[in-house]
Amino acid sequence: MVDIPASVDRSSSLMISYLLRRLAFLAGSLFLAGVVIFLLLRLLPGDPANSLLSVGATPEQIAAARHEIGSDRPLPEQFVTWLGQLATFDLGNSFISSLPVGPEITSRLDVTVPLTLLSFLLAVVIAVPVGFVAARRSATWYGTLINGISQLGIAVPVFWIGMILITVFALRLGVLPAGGFPQDGWALPGEALTSLALPVITVALVMSASLVRYVRSAALDVLGSDYLRTARALGSSFNRAMWRHGMRNGAVPVVSVLGIELATTLLGAVVVETVFALPGLGSLLAQAVAQHDYPTVQGVLFVSTFAVLVIGFLSDVAQRLIDPRLRGRLSGGAR
Amino acid sequence: MSERTTDEPTTDEPIRDEPITEEPTAVELTKTAPDTGEEPGGPGRSGRPGAASVPVRRRRSPALVAGCVLVGLIVAVALVSLFWVPYAPDDTTGGRLMSPGLPHLLGTDKLGRDLLTQLMTGARIALEAGLGAIAIGTALGLCAGLAAGFATRWLDDTLSTLLDVLIAFPTLLLAMLMVAARSASLSSAVLAIGFAMTAVVARLTRILVKRVLAQDYITAARTSGTSWPRVITGHVLPNIWPTLVVNLAQQFGLAVMTEASLSFLGLGAPPPNASWGRMLHEAQATVFTAPTGVIAPGVLLVMLVVGVNLIADGLRDALDPTRRRTR
Fold it and tell me: 20 to 30 Å CA-CA from B231: which of A184, A324, B18, B173?
């Protein structure tokens, strides 16, 4: 896997052309995602103006409401207006509170981003060693046990684990808060971290259950590979062979899964935030959906889709950095 | 996450973001999928030359049997609930938060509704959600995947880019969007989960179809005058369905989880249709006084999803000839 000097030029130029193509793809899919979100909200039955009106509104009131939010204009025009707003980071005003959506989303990210990143880190720290041990010792009783637990873990809904952890650690033992987040946010980092502890553990447990399976399967591939056997036959110690050849080869599929997991966690936050009463992006979305607050729904969806696509981009780039052989291929999928 | 959320996603569709080229074999497709049916004895064994030629008698897969038992139990409960439940689902005449015993076998919830009744109805709702989403996802996804697999380069590129974006769009969000635009109901949930599944099924179908179409027997069939429709029904579908069925079984589990998550958020089937997710939501406040209300729906949900995942694993072992041979 060590680059031969003569090939360095070609390899890095491949990487640059890859980055350019992948960026174009990112821009394209972002635009497409914008179209999908926009159309979904417009084409589904029910005028967004309805949420501004009370039952029994007169036709004049309906027309006025439609005019106010612009839903009486043709779709392409509405779409261009929306794109123009997006370009200036203006996500519109909430129907319910009349406050701008953008700053509201930013303040919610203060909860959701730390929650996502911390659980992600914790899950990686748990899953990588456990998955490796499960593969290396797959014939032992604890290898089988790890396998069984992770099989069970992927079937457990995250909110159920959350409720059980609340019952045990908050209600019975009283060591951690059951939910909520300090009013001042991160002004008191200790308190903020304590209130994130249970949610982070909940998400990390569920996430590592599925990660363990991927790490185990990647490690099994590496352990059974010809190149590892060859390296060992040439006199390399197991640790050295794993370090030089195994890690790099095994990392590619794991990084690909990590990208998906990170994205899922970010969006899965909606359920966890509901369980723990956290004022995050997910609970904003759930609330906006319940209130038919279209600008907020649209804004949150766009921001989270943007995040998901960027995570996909980073994960694809990381895979190409690890494995230069992939550089000829645009993204994870076959193309 | 659940879908685990997480979405999500919990069991993430293992195939969907794998770097798959046009060439890999069926073994490679399942390679990075978490495989649980690994034989003790380790990975080195299957790769040994000569291992393939030794005929090994295939045992009945314990995963498949265990999965069928778990799912069978839930199906039986759901079927019974069609004809008989102990009380009416909206009967609030029982005392509030009664402990398990007589006359309410599993006790009652905070409104005095019989827990067993709700659990039984919940089994039906969960299965309806899973089956409905699978039906929509398979019907649309198979068509889209076949179209992309057969399409010209340009159309194929467009379709698969579209699929990539749709897959990046998480099921739970799509479902919430659907609920926002329609109303909170089982059909909204099923439609949204089914649509989200469509993209996953379509993408897998496309990859599988391309792989089959590159085979010599397709060329042979075409040269000997077989029409495309006959090629599809006679060669393409029979060759892709084993992988597809395994994937659909996993998707079924995901669909059930997503429906539970939606109901937990209050966006699923409205009362009196008891859904396990909504039962959990309602019981959250009284977890101390009436723990059965939290434990029972969760256990059933896990039973169903574990059962379906076990069936998927068992099917993969049974249907994939390359895995069978290396046993």
Answer: B18
